[in-house]
Design brief:
The structure holds two protein chains of two kinds. By secondary structure, chain A is an all-alpha fold. In chain A, 69% of the residues lie in helices and 0% in strands. Chain A contains eleven helices and no strands. The chains are: A mainly alpha, B mainly alpha.
């Protein structure tokens, strides 16, 4: 039962994020654009590039979708409304998101095209930059909750949300999350106007639809992970829990999408340098500060 | 051990071996690396079947990143990374055969002579496992793990240095 509810919520969330992304990119709000685009993609001719690595070409987008769905499995919408409440949920989320990298490398390598391949390997460079900044802020969150269970992490924020308790971790996590979902300005693997679509360059028709759907799932997963780890999950007055989760998730996704078009694209070397020299230092400082606060002040 | 546990353990074990065979059957370096990744993922799934949640998920997570990094190193340094030139990249076959054979015999000897204590009757919960692992990693095993990490880092830097051809300014 809760699996069906979560999947339905995910579908609605994906559609809402697609509408928001259309608004951010085209500057015009259209409620029907995602539906018409999807229909158009399904109807289009599916071109197979010459001498592809067929196995990778076909399985890349599907693996991306599976990675996104698995990462959603440990996000609680409300108390009890979660696909699987693992004791190590926060680690499981990381493990699922690691396969975004594998899927993009496969999708980039598969079509035997230069743009796709460069896009796929660029994402590896991007991954090396953001990987530590996903894991280390979650470490600090788990330290406060004294658990890796996502439900416990939400409950630990009853008195004070983590966004106030560990603001450095929040900022680092959001930037890293934008890297995972390759949202602009960190959209190196697709790089519109630079790589002619990158990983998406050789995909057409239904395969491209799967690739884009998978990315929407990943954006929703990361926005809801941000809500779970930093914005108190389902906690909030007046409204029921699931409504709070949905509202906060959409707000975070809208924030991420609205930020992108206003900033210049980051070069991978620059992103790496900033992430490692500044980001990891701050993440370590965050872990230390949270440790001290957790020991001294009981909130 | 229930029938379902035995079935899934065997399934993922065979999957791990099969993907291990694929590593050597393919000519493509990237396919080879990804096959090795899925072989290791299957081992992670075996951990999950044996209710070692933390270890299983950790294995599945770490291998994704490690094998991807290995794939790009292979693409950078091998002459035929896509395997489309049908280039034979094997060498020292006799030595490899002997090394593999001796390794197999050594592994079998260890498996058959070690005093296994039989299945554990009660598996601690996932929470408890994570706690016990944390105590182990930050206690008795800390020195071993930290020194291993340093050695791997040194080996990575050294291997890259050896593999890069000397640049013009280095020769002058």
């Amino acid at each position: 039962m809760s699996i069906a509810v979560v999947l339905l919520a995910l579908a609605v969330g994906c559609y809402a994020v697609a509408v928001l992304e259309g608004w951010a990119v085209h500057g015009r709000l259209s409620l029907t654009r995602p539906a018409t685009s999807a229909l158009a993609l399904m109807g289009r001719e599916q071109i197979l590039p010459r001498t592809p690595d067929r196995l990778f070409f076909e399985s890349g987008p599907v693996l991306l979708l599976i990675a996104g769905l698995l990462s959603v499995a440990v996000i609680p919408l409300a108390p009890g409304l979660i696909i699987t409440d693992l004791a190590i949920g926060a680690l499981f989320l990381n493990a699922a998101l690691a396969y975004v990298l594998v899927a993009l490398i496969m999708a980039g390598w598969g079509p035997n095209g230069a743009y796709g391949m460069i896009g796929g390997w660029r994402f590896l460079g991007q991954f090396v930059a953001y990987a530590m900044l996903i894991v280390m802020p979650i470490t600090a969150v788990a330290m406060r909750a004294e658990s890796l269970s996502t439900t416990q992490i939400v409950l630990s924020q009853a008195a004070l949300w983590n966004v106030v308790y560990q603001p450095i971790g929040f900022v680092l996590f959001v930037i890293a999350a934008m890297g995972v979902a390759w949202l602009p300005p960190i959209d190196l693997p697709t790089g519109g106007g630079d790589l002619a679509g990158g990983v998406e360059a050789e995909y057409t028709g239904a395969r491209l639809a799967v690739l884009r759907l998978a990315r929407l799932v990943i954006i929703v997963a990361l926005a809801s992970a941000t809500v779970t780890f930093y914005l108190g999950g389902w906690l909030g007055p007046w409204l029921p829990g699931w409504a709070w989760t949905a509202l906060k998730t959409l707000a975070v996704a809208a924030g991420m999408l609205a930020l992108g078009p206003r900033l210049p694209r980051l070069r991978e070397a620059k992103y790496l340098a900033v992430s490692w020299k500044l980001g990891i230092t701050l993440a370590l400082a965050n872990i230390f500060l949270v440790g001290v606060i957790a020991l001294v002040v009981p909130i | 051990m229930s029938l379902a546990t035995a079935f899934f353990l065997a399934f993922f074990g065979i999957a791990a071996i099969w993907f291990g065979v694929v590593v050597f059957r393919t000519h493509s370096m990237v396919r080879s690396a990804i096959a090795l990744l899925f072989s290791q993922t299957a081992i992670g799934a075996m951990f999950l079947v044996m209710q070692a949640e933390f270890l299983g998920v950790l294995q599945i997570m770490m291998m994704a990143t490690e094998m991807s990094v290995m794939a790009i190193f292979m693409v950078m340094f091998m002459m035929d990374p896509g395997g489309m030139g049908k280039m034979d990249m094997t060498h020292q076959k006799r030595l490899s055969l002997w090394a593999g054979g001796i390794g197999l015999v050594a592994a079998l000897v260890v498996i058959w002579t070690a005093g296994w204590q039989g299945p554990v009757p009660e598996v601690p919960g996932a929470d408890e496992q994570a706690r016990l692992l944390g105590r182990e990693l930050l206690g008795r095993s800390m020195f071993i793990f930290e020194s291993a990490a340093l050695m791997i880092l040194t080996a990575m830097v050294a291997a890259t240095m050896v593999a890069i051809s000397p640049q013009e300014e280095d020769i002058q």
